[in-house]
TrEMBL record:
This is N-acetyltransferase domain-containing protein. The keyword Acyltransferase applies. One of its GO terms (molecular function) is acyltransferase activity, transferring groups other than amino-acyl groups. Residues 4-190, 182-317 form the N-acetyltransferase domain. InterPro entries: Acyl_CoA_acyltransferase, Bact_Acetyltransf, GNAT_dom.
Amino acid sequence: MSLLEFRSFRNHDVPVIAELWNSAELGRGAVIMHGTDELDFFVLSQPHFDRHGLILAFVDGQPAGFVHAGFGVGSNRTTVDSTTGVICALVVHPAFRGRGIGRALVQQAESYLLSHGAQVLLAGPADPFNPYWSGLYGGSEASGFLESDVLAKPFFTSLGYRPQSMIGVFQRVIGQRDPINVRLMRVRRSTELRLLEDPVPHDFWTLTNRGRLETARLGLVLKKQELPVGWVTICGLDMYSSKWQQRAIGLHGIHVAPEHRRQGYGQALLCDVSKQLKDDQVDLMEAHANMEDPAAMAVLISSGFQLIDTGIVYRKA
């Protein structure tokens, strides 16, 4: 009979975790790790990292899988809030599937979270409950477990987790034709795209997640008033180049000033960003939007984006 053992992370486990990750076939939203630097940079170097939340499973001494759990941030976005725990990653090597190892790993993670005060249990990291794996899973941002990660949904629902929120993953191919309409033409005549000062995030949570990526802010400016009416932050997704075989840019914080909304400025902003990125030899743009935010989805779709995946955050019933 095989011996199944669990233990917390140790420093020499880094290459083991990277190998398990690459073997797991997690779908389009999981980067391919080419060494251990990615894991060090995006996970282990987080100031709130706790090795006891990263739990490995071994079968007869052979690495079989791991689970990583942690906690979200409080409403002030400055301190970790242990009342909500989240499973950020779960991997079982294909050779060891069908033996109950994944279920046992989740139980280990839940015990860790509950012992540290968790009153709510989530599965799938998304802001503000995204302590780990941003940059390595999800694409332009952490948005729960993706539907393209085909084993995630049936597995977590079988354990009593139910969808709490759904986030659409939208992409636009750079170089495709812009929409043709009079309003867009009129807005473009009165505005231009400019590089704006990218403010440094002031809150701890943004700094430790998105703050690890190189970013720039692009704004749509009224020519006569020198006034930005909308802006978006872009970040490189070079980590996904080997998986997608394309050079991609992620979009965050798409914003149009309230007095200028529903006038075509959001559409013009995204179309002009696409034009600029084409000159920079970028192939693809990606943005995420909550499926309960029809306005955000509408501006993406009107700008030529297509829904290509869906992220789901699950909550334990």
